[in-house]
Amino acid sequence: MKAEDLKLVVQEKYGAIAKQSLLLNQSSCCGTSGCCGDLDIKMIGDEYQNIDGHHKEADLGLGCGIPTQYAGIKPGDSVLDLGSGAGNDCFVARAIVGDTGKVTGLDFTESMVSRAIDNNKKLGFTNVEFVQGDIEEMPFPKESFDVIVSNCVLNLVPDKNLAFAQMMRVLKPGGHFCVSDVVIKGNLPDKLQKDAEMYAGCVAGAIEIEEYLGIIAKNGFADTTVHKQKAISIPEDLLANYLTPEEIARFQNRENGIFSITVSGYKQS
Length: 269
Fold this sequence. Notes:
- This protein has 269 residues and is an alpha/beta fold.
- The chain has one domain: 3-Layer(aba) Sandwich (Rossmann fold).
- 30% of the residues lie in helices and 22% in strands.
- The protein has 9 helices and 7 strands, in the order H-H-E-H-E-H-E-E-H-E-H-H-E-H-H-E.
- It has a 7-stranded mixed beta sheet with strand order 3-2-1-4-5-7-6, sandwiched between helices.
- The longest helix is centred in the N-terminal third of the chain and has 16 residues.
- The radius of gyration is 18 Å and the shape is globular.
């Protein structure tokens, strides 16, 4: 799938999800829009209910971790959330930065940005804003943010190298990122990895973990740490649509498969 085609699919599918509720989305990580095609993978994110700042209406159940838990955000920080959706992680970050900090959400989909703005109006935060834009070409000046977070979004970006280069550009010296994302261990069969609908769903655009970490290093980030790693379980009857019995066995033995990770890295001062 070409980069521009992928972006159009993402906008279409996540635009539809933006109009749904968490209750609908809980049936699968893609909601009821069918963006995973035949793969009805259950929600892969962690529970936010006991997280300070969690706003139920902003939680569409689309994450694969809780990056703010490991992000080292401090009161007064300026935080950027990439792929901010309906605003869930932004509001969690706002609870940490307090009145003296600032939180900015960037999302590619207009309807997601509109929903996040509506949620923020209800909460009344004056130091939270939402901007529509492309992660590959962020509409922010260089050295604008102390911390960048992102939750199950960078795997949707066609050019991940450009995404991390942009992250390096907009971070302040000494700033850092912490993202939760989906990666692959081992080789996935082409028929599973290249399924068109997968590109706007749970494991969309995921790459091999060593390649992912290599892109981070290539863009100059230091002290990279993988804080959490969790296998994404897929029902065997669904895997059977894509994999041979031998390939399914390797998935179940965790020799290869699909994983969520939460990773951080620092921009040197």
